[in-house]
Amino acid sequence: MATVTFDHVTKKYGEVVAVDDLNLEVNDGEFMVLVGPSGCGKTTSLRMIAGLEEITGGTVRIGDRVVNDVAPKDRDIAMVFQSYALYPHMTVRDNLAFGLKLRKVSKPEIERRVKEAADTIQLSNLLDRKPKELSGGQRQRVALGRAIVREPAVFLMDEPLSNLDAKLRVQTRAEIARLHQRLRTTMVYVTHDQVEAMTMGTRIAVMSDGLLQQVGSPQELYDHPVNKFVAGFIGSPAMNFATVTASGTGDAAVLTGSGLSIPLPLRLRAAADSVHGKTLIAGFRPEHLDIGDAGSNVAGFQAKADVVEYLGNDELLHLSLEGLDLVAVVSSAHLVRPGDVLSLRLPLDKLHLFDSETGEVIRGDAPVAATA
Ligand code: ATP
After folding, report:
1. Nearest C-alpha to atom 3 of ligand 1 is from which residue?
2. Residue 338 CA from chain centroid, whole number
3. How many other C-beta atoms can be found within 10 angstroms of the C-beta atom of residue 127?
4. Could you tell me which of 184, 105, 190, 186 has the C-alpha nearest to residue 149?
5. Which H/E stretch holds residue 344?
6. Which of 15, 89, 197, 324 is the most buried (most CB within 10 A)?
7. Among 10, 12, 44, 83, which residue has the most ligand 1 atoms within 8 Å of its CB, making it the best to mutate?
8. Backbone angles phi, psi at 343, to 5 degrees
9. Quick check: 265 and 298 in contact, CB under 8 A?
10. Count of CB atoms within 10 A of residue 57's CB?
11. Alpha helix (H) ranges present in the chain?
12. Are 254 and 265 in contact (CB under 8 A)?
């Protein structure tokens, strides 16, 4: 096992900066997910660990070793791609064994590793089949198996579930998580899907436009996003945002705009002076809205339900107030109908506030950037 370290790593393709001054440490045995929208630089980062892309600046280390100039085959890594890239004319057993044969691993050792990998990911009864006789999920398991037999220090996975249908994706997601719990090998996993990131990662690194935005556990990212980008990217359905202006002081400090009037939460009072008169972005998650009245430390407002999506236990409400579109997830026991005007409540401890220009989160203990 090993750590993976990006130390001021930059990757340029001509004028395009694909990865910009990336600093990130993946701990030994950790499941690190790199997540972000298309083009954010996550695949390029992974490929630099693998040695498939040259590094323009900075260093990449695996363990204590700088690997910038080490050939991919000498990096002690194994990679799983979106396309399974199996050899069609070989059986599963031979697909698993092939890389080891090339490396001149002894026959008994190959047999041991193939058997162990096949047991680990339940391929034992498929060893004599060829890839065309397997389902998509089984093929991806073979691709995983081929990585496992290498017994690498680090697994690298690039969107390995993208070719699977929704049900298989959920199943294979759990299998990979189980595999990591069993092997405890360092994994770096790339996806654009925040649900995959949240469910699989020990920690998640969120990227946008080549820049690392935030690194943390799924819960840290969900509870304490450092900026509007992370707040909107992590969580499903996405966080609601509303433009508001801060006014008043002390108990009268209030955020108004977009049809909302929200008392400034106590924890943000220390920032009240610096946000006074400023345009800010209020953020709150759909699941933190509920039907009911305002109260102590709970803001309230009215909104009209335009569309109601029944989800079984919950219902997803598309709401409007004064031109602002919001989403709420509430218990389906409320039986909301389209056109209903609802009283909604928002606990103030669930309110996030962002600088409208920089997108940075506003904390009670930190002054706001002087942008206004
Ligand atoms: P996706 O999920 O779409 O694969 P990504 O986050 O993995 O996106 P990268 O593939 O790392 O993004 O690409 C980052 C940026 O670098 C993009 O702007 C992309 O267009 C650019 N890029 C990637 N490979 C090359 C290349 N070989 N030549 C020029 N530009 C490239």
Report:
1. 38
2. 33
3. 18
4. 105
5. strand 341-347
6. 197
7. 44
8. -90, 125
9. no
10. 13
11. 42-50, 92-102, 107-120, 136-148, 166-183, 194-200, 218-223, 228-233, 272-275
12. no
- pTM comes to 0.91
Structure token digits, residue 279: 């345009």
How many angstroms separate the CA atoms of 214 and 191, rounded? 16
Task: Give which of 70, 77, 75, 51 is closest to 151, Cα–Cα.
Answer: 77
Structure confidence by residue, pLDDT tens digits, 202-245: 999 999 999 999 999 999 999 999 999 999 999 999 999 999 99
Parallel, antiparallel, or unpaired for β 254-257 and 260-263?
Answer: antiparallel
CA–CA gap between residue 52 and residue 49 (Å, rounded): 8
Contact yes or no for 281/242 (Cβ under 8 A): yes
- d(CA 223, CA 217) in angstroms, rounded, equals 10
Atom in ligand 1 nearest the alpha carbon of residue 43: 7
Burial class of residue 221 (count of CB atoms within 10 Å of its CB; 0-12, 13-18, 19+): buried
pLDDT tens-digit series, residues 298-347: 999 999 999 999 999 999 999 999 889 999 999 999 999 999 999 999 99
* Tokens 């705009």 -> residue: 257
Query: 291, 254 in Cβ contact below 8 A?
Result: no
